[in-house]
## 1
Amino acid sequence: MGQEKVAEVGSLEPGKMTQVKVDGQATLLANVDGNYYAIHNICTHKGCTLSKGRLNGNIVTCPCHGSQFDVTNGHVMHGPAQKPEQAYSVVVQDNDIIIET
Ligand code: FES
């Protein structure tokens, strides 16, 4: 299992999300109430970039057709998407936000 530092604590405010690269893959990193979560950033519906959508609590809404995913586990909360997003473990070590692949 690999580990990749993607950001530093404090660089992403609570309620915000951003795109980072993990293993060359577009990955969404979200801060939900001070906890960090990561899922694949490409919508399983038709491939739009989830981090360009909206984050409400732990739910990201795709900007294209409104699919909703839970950033804590990648589950589909609302269609049209049917397939979940891959979710990654995120750990914080000292000041570093690290995603495990
Ligand atoms: Fe995301 Fe269609 S591409 S909902």
## 2
Amino acid sequence: MALIVQKYGGTSVGSVERIQSVSERIISTQQQGHDVVVAVSAMAGETNRLMNLANQMSEVPEPRELDMLLSAGEQVSIALLALSLNQKGIKAISLTADQAGIYTNNRFNDATIEHIETDLITQWVDKGYIVIVAGFQGRDKNGNITTLGRGGSDTTAVALAAALNADECQIFTDVDGVYSSDPRFVPNTRRLKEISFSDMHLLAKSGAKVLQEHSVAHAWNSSVTLRVLSSFDDGEGTLICEQPVEGKGVIGLALKQDLLLIECNGFLEEELTELRKQYRVLIERCDCFQIVVPKAAFLQLKLAFSTKIRNISSLSILTLVGDKVEGMADSACNQLMANCVDIYQHSIEPKSLSVIVNQADLERAADILHKTFVITEQSQDNNLMIAVS
Ligand code: ADP
Ligand code: ASP
Ligand code: MG
């Protein structure tokens, strides 16, 4: 008998019918003789809906109250899933993160799990219950509700698996594994049977939202066996592990879309200091008064710098991940420019090559980089893969 932690994302619990089907999958795991602890996201679209409500009250909502609001989505789905299991005659109990003992720091909206007091979960598991824990939430040491950043239910699941010493952490989502790039944007992507923690971490960090970046780091640090699977179909999914059997060459292309290039009428030195302190400035070009920030920072930044802002445009980052991609910068940039894609900037880090382009060129650029550099079924020989952000 094994202890399995399963996580179901928003689309997987997006309707009553989907929740019923998730409960069947959980029951089938239990019938194979396993204990099951489940982490669940809010129903698809719910966290965005709550965010919109908050923005109707304030352009820049107060972080503590925002977490109080956003965490509500997960409380609905855990209860519905428990009700569905109960209705099918299965013992199940839902727990908020507070009840489940998930302690975080107090960085509202982007908290980090510090430890989990697993006693209550273990007691229920020992009594034969399926324990369903609200993903994405935590509590700080003063009892305030925190949230773990968008996509944070993945991290809840991995942290639970680590704390409970589970045999496997299974992330069920709306695709049947990790692909060489986002299969919804890029043609001819390939599902990876296995991928290393380090490559997956680079992909996630560069925008492949199939796994939240922190969840991969946590699994890597705690040696959690992590697998991405479809909640819609059966299959082996993708195993994220230390030493995959495949995984030489270019592994994937990650895409990050929500960036803004903000051009200003000059900065004072103290304004630059403030920018660096307050906002996640990804790039600054002081010579031409340009900064690149995540879209999420914009409303706050607009309030502080409105009179300075001259122009705003959307950018995307495409990141190729894999062996020797550092040496492919000239070739990648030439390919893109030959296809009329303007490059704002490119950068190289160990095992990753990022290219920043206008948002409007993203799909074309992704297609070009993926088919030229990434390993696909058709081009296994050249051992290449791309990730787009
Ligand atoms: P969930 O709600 O289940 O957490 P997400 O929307 O957060 O699901 O993550 C799944 C999505 O991640 C997929 O629908 C896909 O569009 C996107 N994605 C981005 N990059 C990849 C990739 N390399 N492989 C698979 N999916 C990816
Ligand atoms: N519901 C949260 C979000 O939409 C957390 C998650 O889905 O993992 O970001
Ligand atoms: Mg997700």
